[in-house]
Amino acid sequence: xxxxxxxxxVAAIGxxxxxxDLVASPTFRRLALRSISRRxxxxxxxxxxxxxxxxxxxxxxxxxxxxxxxxRDVARTQLGPIDLTxxxxxxxxxxxxxxxxxNQVAHGxxxxxxxxxxxxxxxxxxxxxxxxxxxxxxxxxxLAEMDFAQARRFGPxxxxxxxxxxxxxxxxxxxxxxxxADQMRLRQGxxxxxxxxxxxxxxxxxxxxxxxxxxxYCGALVAPGTLDGLWSSRSVADAGTSTxxxxxxxxxxxxxGGVFDSTRxxxxxxxxxxxxxxxxxxxxxxxxxxxxxRIDSAERNGSQLRSIFSGIGGxxxxxxxxxxxxxxxMLAEERKVEFGLLRAVGFRRAHLLRSFGLExxxxxxxxxxxxxxxxxxxxxxxxxxxxxIFAEPNxxxxxxxxxxxxxxxxxxxxxxxxxxxxxWLASVRVARLNIISSIRDLPDPRRASRHVGRxxxxxxxTTGGIVASIIGAENGxxxxxxSGVPLAAFCLIAAVSQAQPSARLPVRAASVVCxxxxxxxxxxxxxxxxxxxxxxxxxxxxxxxxxxxTAAVIIAVAFAPLWGHAAAARGGTFALSCRLGFAYPxxxxxxxxLILGMFSLVIFTMVFMASLASTIDGQASTAADExxxxxxxxxxxxxxxxxxxxxLESHAGVxxxxxxxxxxxxxxxxxxxxxxxxxxSGFDEGMLRFRAPVLGKRLPxxxxxxxxxxxxxxxxxxxxxxxxxLLRGGGPKDDGPExxxxxxxxxxxxxxxxxxxxxxxxxxVIFQGSLWSKSAVAEFIPDAAIETRAxxxxxAGSSIEDIAAVxxxxxxxxxxxxxxxxxFDKVVADELGRTTAFMRLLQVYLGxxxxxxxxxxxxxxxxxxxxxxxxxxxLRALGFQGRVVARAFLIEAxxxxxxxxxxxxxxxxxxxxxxxxxxxxxxxxxxxFSVAVVPLIAIALIPxxxxxxxxxxxxxxxxRIRPAVALRIAD
Amino acid sequence: MPSTDAPILSARGVxxxxxxxAVEVEALRGIDLDLGAGEMVTVMGPSGNGKTTLLxxxxxxxxxxxGSVVIDGEDIAAMSDARRTDHxxxxxxxxxxxxxxxxxxxxxENVELPLLLAGARPKEARGRAHxxxxxxxxxxxxxxxxxxxxxxxxxxxxxxxxxxxxxxxxWADEPTGNLDSTTATAVLDLLLxxxxxxxxxxxxxHDADIGASGERLIEVRNGQLVYDGSPDHAHAVHSRD
Lengths: 971, 241
Known about the structure:
The complex is a heterodimer. By secondary structure, chain A is of the alpha+beta class.
């Protein structure tokens, strides 16, 4: 069952019960509404505290929607009516080939086709012709030729985008979409310079049209015959360039329906199109369901980001739940006498539950509505941050904020469901009160007898946990293996507590020993079960953090009396404040555990992220050394105008160059059965001139990494793959490539080749994809593979500055080749910088969890001030100065905040260390863990300071309490 | 124990008004009162007539609107809150009807609070708290929290806390109000024993027997002292009224 439906069902039940009780139960309504109106200020604080959870959930959903929506929108702006494309790469006369393709498709058996449009497309370098700061070059643009009259018939004007584009461009003219024109700073009448096939073409920008449909399909639409003309004159003009990719003869196929609803026919149409072209002898035709792929990608990316932000936000949500439980318990304890009296006059437990639940539900409704609204603001901040981090210099893609009413309602529903379930569970505890002790405002009597049911449940939990670990170990289920024993240990505490209800010592001993076992197991499982825990995904580490925090909080609460004894051993008013400050948290261990857990969880996650970010930052230079094979500079060029080795080596300061034959065939392997496009880079001995790229793993038959690459060159049945091979979307994963894996490569003609993985690259931030011998790539993917990438070595002894200067000169000299030239250090630093920036964005997002922690502590202290008013009055009567009592309050807040910081920081660092050492999720080098000193200090100090600030107001208030008023002893 | 000539507390023209919105209630209307050192005074009167307000104002727990309360030669009404608090810590002990123990502290920890406040060393304070608990009949109950004690035992802890720093004046507001008659008698005996040690004891009570057990009875009605004299004559005065 879809969990969303469960949540919606819970929310609906909660809302329905609330409505029924509001309308049909005047007593419950009166009690709930008057309790709220009696303490409006506190009601507002509770609503604000509970609101953050919904805001965090809503923001995660909005971020996902925005990515999804923005990528989907590309289907409208860059595809319009185009659902599928079929293409071939003829040696000449691409226009004729496109028309032939059109003819085959139009007369073939493909269902739901409502239009076929032939076109010729080529990759090109765009240049606005200016020099200096006004120059704009886009090295990876495309040119397309199509007949505008036919194009208008192909798609309706509103989605085709050519309604106002005028007639088909004639020679020397270009029609451009607004987005690319703006990016190139070109206006109507300006001149666009394009470079391809070693030639330069100057085009007058005749018309600029909105970037929609066919108008956004390529950067510029040009006169039919232009590309064939350039290609045919290439042999004379392209001296000095490497083999480039010929113009592509393509047909665009439109299926029945509009922009988005036509994709339902895609899968079937793709098969029929392949069959049709295959029957007609087009064995090398490439058919791609472009729109369906785009929408799949949108959904995948949106879902992935939604998961990341929901997962990270989950810590904040858990903190919010802990806060809510704390608040409900405090509210209940404050009204204990009232509840006892209600039970005495005839309220059943269910009545009490409903009455209290109604009040909680009203808070939850207000909080979820407010949180849903706030989530729009939080989501837009995250989108703005993400846009900034991932902005590509030559990309027109933007992430726009998409806010859907359904999303806001869903966020409100989830927030409400979480809140109402929390309130109900806490209310069940409240409803089980002892009537006499409640009326007399005494603690519930300690049970002397065992509760057999609970004892049995605890023993069952203990056994179940151990069994889960055993099963997890046998079947390689990492979560079960890791969490089984800790859960058993936690259940054992409950079992001891139920078995010895009146004995404190065994329970206290269990509260220290069992969590200690949980911690040792959780940390040790990675070494004890190295094989089973290999490829641990980030989810495993999140659960690991939760288990560690839970265990540490239990130990902290069990050991807490030591703090009290330490304070008691000292004299003076400060020690008195300490004693009072510790006394309350120590006496209410459950509540203390909740609030300490709330604070620890948030700090834990922030420290975890900061430590990972710091480690990734520190790996930039190491990662560059691991992948550069001893070269200094990475050159990527446009497929229509690549640079040859000779040309690269002819530049001043360049000692050597080695090119890669690049293509994007499809692959499958043991964990990816769906044919997936992945890069292949064909290398030759030149790459190994200085040293081999570093491998993370290799087949044991090879003595070293170099031997692996030599073997790949010698044997076309071997391949080296990157560490993220066929792991869609990158990021966290539970599986990964291994030496010895079999992979199947499929070329555009559909031929298949089974290869053995000889080694796995340690890191691949330059997206080599897979490394195969250049001759094998040329033989298996003859037309699609182009030498678009090169490694360049600067002259021996060049400094970092010299290398950067060579890179700059190279780029300037090869601008017409559409090159992007960067030093390896910069490429790696930029790429890792994006990762760390994204992690910092997640940390900012987590800041909302911190707000919950800080606000929660403030709310708890405000409530504590009210709850202890009588006792504070007594202390003041005894002669305690207001400042001593106020200081005790601050010490109490400090105890929680500092405890949370200590637990969270320690465990966050340990968990991050485990990730670095044991996980391949972030491609981090084992042993490279680095401590993020400055962020850690900030994470430790800022929340503590804010927590103290949040507690300052209630502390001031208790310091000003007049004893006579607090004691309520006035006649 | 007979009182000495010099009053330990001298109140003149004490006036206290409670204000709730626009409503003003004059709880004390110009009280003049002297308490001698070592005196045992009982305060009686109907509910809501100002007995507890009188205790609050004379002890410095509450501020007064007019008049003066001089203790040891100093007007506590003119003192800052901080000084008045210090004065209270040094010179007074309190016993309340609802015990008012700190629920999260043990019996010994509750009793030693005034000593620690006075600057005693923790070990010494714990020793004296133990002695005092033994004196009030709670030997072996040092580590028990209030919730683990009976009402009578809690009040004994409160008495031990009020006495432990040997204050000059002990204020007891309905000390037996929450106790059964047997426990109430035991608590009263304890208070009388305290008084016999020379400390001034002021007990607010509704119980005529306790009222009669003091050396001096004060009766408060409508915020005024309507009787101040021997408990023996109180009945005769009331009869004449």
